[in-house]
């Protein structure tokens, strides 16, 4: 069994990785952690984790290692670069990449790992910081079935439900489709809040009305109230949501699927990034909506004179 004695390596201690690794420790797993910025390991060590100085060192020590990294570039770097995963992966060792990446990235990692005798699954997750802390993620796994089954004790700690979706790439694609829908919905909410306020309605009344009707959903309920307070403390960084829109649009290109709504949502997230909002929560796209709306009415200069909140 890959997760013998509930022991696992963990690469990447950002918002999600820190919550997930902490959760594994809390549930009796021995966890060896690595993060590019090594100081971020300290808090995990206080909670009982061990440190691996490099990804290769973690792979050498653990039979199974999970990664939770920002994007395709990070996921590839940790595997292929010097002192990376490939230097120690071998027969009997499993690697589970839970980062949100595209199917091509996942396939490259799969090929490299399996050609050295290792085992691979991708397992991106749906659910943000709080579900990660509470073990309530939805896990979208694909790849070697035997490794998926061996990982179930860990997935049961990390998530409320795991899906096995078949060949490598299917987990990545499912995650991108879900996040494309989520990003479009966030833009619809932003525009609705901007339109309500600008046309003289109380945005809180709008949220209350939405919550009682057919389009009520947990995201509007959670993000709506903080958006009207201009509070964008990051749970899901906007730069990652824009990356997911970009990767989903590329999947649409490959398959000749026209996605005008997602394309417009992507533009709004890009605008928000250009305003310096990439590290804030993805709901900060509301600031871009407000700026765009005001620019279209009276121009940016005049907007600033009127004290409209900018970047
Ligand atoms: N936050 C959320 O709500 C959710 C996020 N996701 C996905 O999970 C993944 C992680 O997200 P999140 O934790 O929020 O992101 P963060 O930005 O908080 O963390 C990113 C992590 O990736 C590491 N990293 C970035 N670039 C590199 C690199 N070149 N080499 C090595 N390590 C690197 C960072 O290291 P360092 O600390 O050194 O910068 C950090 O550990 C992303 O793919 C995201 O799309 C999925 C579901 C929900
Ligand atoms: O990827 C983000 C999420 O909330 O799911």
From TrEMBL:
Domain 3-hydroxyisobutyrate dehydrogenase-like NAD-binding, which positions?
Answer: 169-287
InterPro entries hit by this protein: 3-OH-isobutyrate_DH-rel_CS, 6-PGluconate_DH-like_C_sf, 6PGD_dom2, 6PGDH_NADP-bd, HIBADH-like_NADP-bd, HIBADH-related, HIBADH-related_NP60_sf, NAD(P)-bd_dom_sf
Describe the reaction catalysed, as an equation: glycolate + NADP(+) = glyoxylate + NADPH + H(+); 4-hydroxybutanoate + NADP(+) = succinate semialdehyde + NADPH + H(+)
**Record keywords, A-Z:** NAD, NADP, Oxidoreductase, Stress response
| Top-rank taxon, per record | Eukaryota
Q: Which Gene3D superfamilies match?
A: N-(1-d-carboxylethyl)-l-norvaline Dehydrogenase, domain 2, NAD(P)-binding Rossmann-like Domain
CC annotations in GO? cytoplasm
- Family named by the database record: Belongs to the HIBADH-related family. NP60 subfamily.
Q: What does this protein do?
A: Catalyzes the NADPH-dependent reduction of glyoxylate to glycolate as well as succinic semialdehyde (SSA) to gamma-hydroxybutyrate in vitro. May function in redox homeostasis and play a role in oxidative stress tolerance by detoxifying glyoxylate and SSA generated in glycolate metabolism and GABA metabolism, respectively.
Protein's name according to its UniProt entry: Glyoxylate/succinic semialdehyde reductase 1
